[in-house]
């Protein structure tokens, strides 16, 4: 099911619904709030695992026109981020499709395994009087026998493609509290990793809440990296992390208690390394 980002008209004090009460009192009718929405989203049917498919969409503005103006330049707060996660949090895909003048985004995607996937489009528009960042959603079903995984408990140590991740100390994470997680990362040779820019940041931390699939995304930035840290009008970007060779400091600000999956991502050569942590949030 498609969802839309709701924007109140500037002349209104807030958003609301309308109704009529008894006793002869008439409540004025409020028009539906203006909405941004995904348009012409494909694929619409099921797809096969292991085969590359084209994910395509545009973004319809409240006036019905296609959004074509997006934040640009260096750093991660640009264009759109395409993040696709399986409902059990067992798989994730993270891409930044190129911005075309037409406003139509296309990205080749290979789904690794069967199951239902949530598609999240994280959008950075360049429009006056509009939210500097918002998300829209859709769904894709991948054919085959779906066997949801049970998330493993938290462990401080992960080995992914020879790279070793060690989180220090065991994190006591609380909802609605800005905090930082510290993680050491070494190469297959045991040396501190040298982090390199990928999609405008040295590393990305993508969080999803188990069950509801609530979302949080933060970046680990190089010192003085342009357009990587705080984004005006988006307070959560103030918890941006930083890196030194072999060490990541990851900013986190989660809205809900419960179980969250942290997908910590970095690029090394031609490979994208994803370290999945299970976090219990108080």
Question: How does this structure look, described?
Answer:
This protein has 282 residues and is mostly beta strands. It has a nine-stranded mixed beta sheet with strand order 9-10-11-15-14-13-12-16-17, with no helix packed on it. Strands 1-2-3-6 form a four-stranded antiparallel beta sheet, with no helix packed on it. A four-stranded antiparallel beta sheet has the order 5-4-7-8, with no helix packed on it. The N terminus is likely disordered. It has two domains: 139 residues, Immunoglobulin-like, CATH 2.60.40.10; 125 residues, Immunoglobulins (Immunoglobulin-like, Sandwich). Strand 16 and strand 17 form a beta hairpin. The protein has no helices and 17 strands.
Average per-residue pLDDT, rounded, comes to: 85
**Cα distance, first to last residue?**
30 Å
CATH architecture annotation name of the largest domain: Sandwich
- What level of helicity do the residues show? under 10%
Structural class: mainly beta
Q: Low-confidence stretches at least 5 residues in length (pLDDT < 50)?
A: 1-25
The best one-word shape is globular
Largest sheet: 9 strands, mixed
What portion of the residues fall into strands of 2 or more residues?
35-45%
Spatial arrangement of strands, main beta sheet: 9-10-11-15-14-13-12-16-17
What number of structural domains do the residues give? 2
Output the helix-strand order: EEEEEEEEEEEEEEEEE
CATH superfamily of the largest domain: Immunoglobulins
């Amino acid at each position: 099911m498609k969802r839309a980002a709701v924007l109140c008209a500037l002349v209104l004090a807030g958003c609301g619904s309308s109704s009529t009460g008894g006793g002869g009192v008439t409540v004025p009718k409020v028009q539906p709030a203006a909405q941004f929405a995904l348009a012409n989203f494909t694929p619409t049917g099921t797809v096969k695992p292991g085969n590359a498919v084209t994910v395509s969409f545009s973004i319809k503005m409240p006036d019905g026109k296609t959004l074509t103006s997006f934040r640009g330049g260096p750093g991660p707060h640009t264009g759109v981020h395409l993040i696709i996660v399986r409902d059990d949090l067992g798989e994730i895909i993270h891409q930044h499709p190129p911005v075309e003048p037409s406003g139509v985004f296309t990205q080749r995607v290979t789904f690794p395994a069967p199951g239902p996937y949530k598609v999240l489009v994280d959008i950075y528009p360049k429009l006056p009087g509009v939210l500097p960042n918002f998300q829209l959603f859709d769904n894709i079903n991948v054919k085959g026998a779906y066997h949801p995984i049970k998330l493993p408990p938290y462990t401080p140590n992960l080995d992914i493609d020879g790279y070793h991740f060690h989180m220090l100390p065991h994190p006591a994470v609380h909802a609605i509290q800005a905090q930082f997680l510290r993680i050491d990362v070494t190469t297959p040779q045991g040396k501190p990793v040298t982090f390199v820019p990928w999609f405008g940041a040295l590393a990305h931390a993508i969080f999803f809440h188990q069950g509801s699939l609530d979302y949080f995304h933060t970046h680990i930035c190089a010192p003085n990296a342009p357009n990587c840290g705080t984004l005006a009008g988006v307070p959560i970007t103030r918890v941006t992390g930083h890196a030194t060779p072999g060490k990541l400091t990851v900013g986190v600000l989660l809205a809900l208690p419960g179980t969250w999956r942290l997908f910590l991502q970095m690029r090394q050569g031609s490979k994208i390394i994803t370290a999945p942590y299970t976090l219990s949030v108080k």
